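User: Once you have settled down, look closely at the record that follows, taking as long as you need, and be ready to discuss the fold:
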Amino acid sequence: MGKLTLFYLGVFLLVSSGDMVGQEKKSSKVSPNIIIFIADDLSATDLEPYGNSFVQTPNISFLAKNGLKFNNAILTTSSCSPSRISIMTGRYPHNTGAAELHTEPEVAFESMASKLNQKGYYTGHAGKWHMGSLLKQGFDNIYENYEQNGDGGEDMWIPSLREREKNKPFFFWFASYDPHRIWGENQFSSVHNPKDIEVPLTLIDNDSTRIDLSKYYNEIKRFDFHIGKVIEELKRQQMFENTIIIVMADNGRPFPRDKTRLYHSGIRTPLIIHWPKFIKRSTSNSLISSIDIAPTILDVCGIVNPKSFQGKSFLDIVKNPNRKFRNYAFAEHNWHDYEAHERMVRTTEYLYILNFRSQFPNQGPADAINSPSFRSLVKANYEGNLTPEQADVFLSSRPTEELYELKNDPFQINNIVNVEKHSKIHLKLKDVLLEWMDKTCDNVPNKLTTDWYSRNTGKRLKENFGIRREMPGKRLNADQCNEKGQF
């Protein structure tokens, strides 16, 4: 690790010199290339490095075995566009002005891409975009057309690498459509045998659910396969050794009780960082937030973070994986097909949720409700055959507050908010969460965007569809608030 320390010391000295033109000339020889692979709807526990030996992800496993794997990386939301925008801008969803699904910022925030581009990086995107128009300002080239990207979103990854400007370091945001529903046919459609699947406790163990899960796993396999192809291309171009590769997801698996939810299956992302030149095989249990990724990338490249970033660099963890980083990580659940307003704070030991729309069930997004897995839950519910873990998605009204002890309850099943011996941590986390909401200009509008789909059938509600109401934080100008809220 001595070489790593010397390398960063040199970078930091260059930054502090104030000669930005000279800095680019001096540091260009050591500027790392960067690729972020971001999956669309993937829970951490559905990858081999995170304990799932059934799902075939040999290339991701290779990166994990030779890189830095984070066990406690927490997304700011379990919803596609708000999560991606949050990662790119280093801001909480309600602070981007795009807290709800299918919305986009009205402010042209600096992003990791725009700052890298200003530093002289070639910046490219290929795959699912879903971040609006203003964030495109940081990219030299964007492939967002579905016909170009292919069913899984990975077809333009290799062409992007080959077409780039060769005299510049590069940053690529390779955003897969996998493993998002609807499942697409691909060469891996028969890889995972439904009979061999271990069904999560929250789903019905029957043929319908098993087939549904197998198709989900097959799309994860396709995501992994194309990561392998990019690795091969990097080696062919002799760029592999000095390319930082990051593998992560925007939110959890598209199943009931997972995607959109603030439990681990929704907001705990896989996060693997591979950089042969400077990172040896290691694992970190440090708590980090997805808004910390952009500041860390800029820090590695010797770029001063913009004031708009609310995250902070975890470069010290790259040097020392055992180092403590955050005391708290925060996440939010806003409208994603259905009216919602939940806030979450997590420590290394506890997860606390405050639900401001507890009158509603929390079954998941419309694509999960339209799934065979959800229909199996509905049938079992009608017959009175659900376990408590499975019945959670139908619970109405829900608890206003939830508290889970992570060591003894890794799936967040046993709500201990009313257990006397946990009252002190309950009140502490509630105070921390409310303080974070206040400092980051968050609020609970009286008229939130309502349901666009039926909570029972997933069918479109004509009277509500397409109607937006007040966005969380809008009244308080949260998109102009730069409070870190890091605690």
